[in-house]
Specification:
With about 375 residues, the protein is an alpha/beta fold. The protein has twelve helices and eight strands. α1 packs across α2, α6 runs antiparallel to α11 and α9 runs parallel beside α10.
């Protein structure tokens, strides 16, 4: 075994706090070969498709990778921008903004690196960037508000796998989820209110989350429960009556049963049933991407309107809204509290005490407002 040596770690220069931001990732270009390469890596991940390896390899390479890349490439071409894939362009803006916000909060240096689970920039390149910056402590932040083994679990696998090659490991922390974080709920509620100020209030508000196969949920994945809680907390914050808001799951793939109700079926049914106006948001995505721009803002809009609906609008993801970035920076700072010497004078003892109090208060509020989810 040959290990990556870590001469970049230096004792004679100040240590730096590393923040590894990660998200799903995207093809390098919307061409069919690049989309095929991306899908081959993504769909071979056993956290994503749990089927036995040999039959799945035959299906993946014999059927899916012969047909799906062309269809997906067309969809990617329809959302591609001058800055490339929306998911990556937004993730880069988030990383740059967080670098600025965190540099103000932490004493010494802090380095934010972006590494995608699939494709580029890779997790391996982001970890190398942090190593070169002398980041001997690394906080990993998967930008998925709700935990699922297929996303957050998979990011953990990729990081652990990369580190099997390192001689000197960094000290690691890992943010698992933030589905009920008050700042996240507030930012979602504010984004909805902003949308209402421009477009008016709809008859129905639909919270559409990416789906997972039902079997993963039955085997203990907490994702479904965390989605329910996020939507309920936002609806409570907006004081929405129960008949005004709904939750559904989008983006299913293959023939097996996924979490229900399905977003596309729901919107078609609503259009046919005479529901006139609908607004849809996808709070499970921290950045707009193929699944929101093409699927929710385009494809599902037509399903609703063609079925008889009159007014449809999509409420964008939190992306680089200032309240979203502040909330992410705050969460990072709170997780960095256990590394107090890294927190600067602006966040000294008083600030630490305030954050601890706040964290305690949030825990207590949770226990009284809900039993579990
Ligand atoms: C086949 C299984 C899939 C599971 C399980 C799954 C879970 C899951 N995915 C996201 C977030 C995103 N998925 C995106 C695209 C996408 N997802 C799947 C399949 C599964 N996802 C595929 C095949 C694709 C590629 C596009 C396509 O061919 O349809 C994206 C967008 C990426 C982009 O480049 O814009 C995101 C983001 C979550 C949160 C999740 C489970 C909770
Ligand atoms: Fe997905
Ligand atoms: Fe999709």
């Amino acid at each position: 075994m040959t290990f990556v040596n870590t001469p970049d770690y230096r004792h004679d220069t100040p240590e730096c706090l590393g923040i590894l931001l990660t998200n799903l990732g995207t093809p390098d270009t919307p061409s069919v070969p690049d989309v095929r390469r991306y899908l081959a890596e993504f769909l071979w991940d056993p956290r994503v498709v749990e089927m036995a390896r040999l039959p799945w390899w035959l299906i993946l390479h014999g059927v899916i990778l012969r047909t799906r890349p062309a269809r997906s490439a067309k969809a990617y071409q329809s959302v591609w921008t001058a800055d490339g894939s929306p998911l990556l362009a937004i993730a880069r803006r988030q990383a740059t903004a967080l670098q600025g916000l965190l540099s103000d909060r932490f004493q010494g240096s802090v380095k934010v690196a972006l590494g995608m689970r699939y494709g580029n920039p890779s997790i391996s390149s982001a970890l190398a960037e942090l190593r070169q910056a002398n980041a001997r402590r690394v906080l990993v932040f998967p930008l998925y508000p709700q935990y699922s083994g297929s996303t957050v679990g998979s990011a953990f696998d990729a990081i652990a796998h990369e580190l099997t090659r390192w001689r000197w490991l960094p000290e690691l922390r890992f943010i698992n989820q933030y589905h009920d974080e008050p700042g996240y709920i507030d930012a979602l509620a504010a984004s909805i209110r902003d949308h209402w100020a421009a477009h008016g209030e709809p008859e129905r508000l639909l919270f559409s989350f990416h789906g997972i196969p039902v079997e993963y949920f039955e085997q203990g994945d907490p994702y479904h429960c965390q989605c329910q809680k996020t939507a309920r907390l936002v609806a409570e914050r907006l004081e929405l009556a129960p008949e005004r808001w709904f939750l559904s799951f989008q983006s299913r793939l293959g023939k097996q049963e996924w979490l229900k109700p399905y977003t596309d079926v729901t919107l078609k049914d609503w259009g046919a049933a005479g529901v006139k106006s609908v607004q849809v948001l996808s709070p499970g995505f921290s950045a707009d991407c193929l699944e929101t721009i093409e699927e929710i803002d385009e494809e599902n809009r037509h399903l609703f309107l063609d079925a008889g609906g009159r007014d449809y609008s999509y409420i964008p993801c939190l992306n680089d809204r200032p309240d979203h970035l502040e909330m992410l920076a705050d969460l990072i700072a709170r997780h960095g509290c256990g590394w107090p010497e890294l927190i600067g004078p602006a966040a000294g003892a008083d600030e630490l005490a305030r954050r601890v109090e706040r964290a305690r208060g949030m825990g207590a509020a949770d226990q009284t407002s809900t039993s579990g989810f």
